[in-house]
Amino acid sequence: MRRTSAVALSRTSTSAACNARTLSRMLATSTGTEAPPASLSTGVRRGLALGSEIPVTLIPGDALRVPIKWEVFERVGDITQNFDLLTSLARNQLCLKGQLKTDYEDSEHFKNNNLVLRKSLNLYANIVPIKSLPGITTRHSGIDMVVFRENTEAEYSGFEQEVTSGVVQSLKVVTRAACIRIAEAAFGYAAAAGRKRVHAIHKANIQKMSDGLFLESVREVAKKYPTVEFKEMIIDNTCMQLVQNPKQFDVLVTPNLYGNLIINVGSGLVGGPGLVAGANYGLHGEAVFEPGARHVAADIQGANVANPTGMLLSGVMLLRHVGLNEQAGRLEKAIHDILLRGKVLTKDVGGFATTKEFTKAVINHL
User: Fold this and answer.
1) Are 315 and 55 contacting, i.e. CB atoms less than 8 angstroms apart?
2) Which of 19, 52, 144, 292 has the most CB atoms within 10 Å of its CB?
3) pLDDT digits (tens, 9 = 90+) for 221-251
């Protein structure tokens, strides 16, 4: 079995970036946006776990028998000063990441590690499958959509200033290049994976220039994919439609902030933020996998009650990314089987099991 380096940044066999073929292979087969394998060691969930060998979970004992060399960073600190981590990312171009908390109240020393990481690797595509899971009962069943969120600009550009006392200004920067890029990724995936339609989510009726440029760019790309139905929807209506009739959505392509809102609403629809996996892709093969809803859950840190499903499923996505489809399928099936049996579930989905107990149940099932 070949070994691939899956730590910070090492070019894996999955070559370059977020093209339609790569996304199709990785997402299309995984029906999931569910539980990707990622062994849940406390360190992994708190920091960045990067492995070097074929990304397969940090499950104790390597239950899947996959050769992986992990470079683990449990304490990130200021990512711009963590040179070991940056070196690892630059070398491996592959990362399994836990949630990093940003202290937004410390405005003087404000540093968003998540934004720094995305921008330094140019992780332009945040892709999150929102899918109903076996054994998890929610108001709506049969949900199966994939969100393509532009991940580097717009409201997250980071350009803010105080114009005068009591007046601040925040710039929303949108470029045609970034809009075209995320639209190409969404339509390319939809066509390759046999998806029926793509919704472009916007607020161009109010933000006529910024969201207008986004919408114009997506329309341009849509013309190249006549077999994929194209629809447009305003963000506020989208939120309502998601709650009322989520099955109408297949693939959604969005600017940065709207994607965040949709992913969080979608996570709630399928059972909560602990159940959803996600991935971030760059232009040259960079790939960072993390829970899709990006909830830090600082209030339960160290309590051993967090639902590890989303983290495990992120591992599944990582395994598929490097071509370990058989192992990814085994892990995904184990997660689904445990959820379906309903005997070992965490509190957020109606059970009494701890994080470790759920993880152990998945390992034993393998």
Assistant:
1) yes
2) 292
3) 999 999 999 999 999 999 999 999 999 999 9
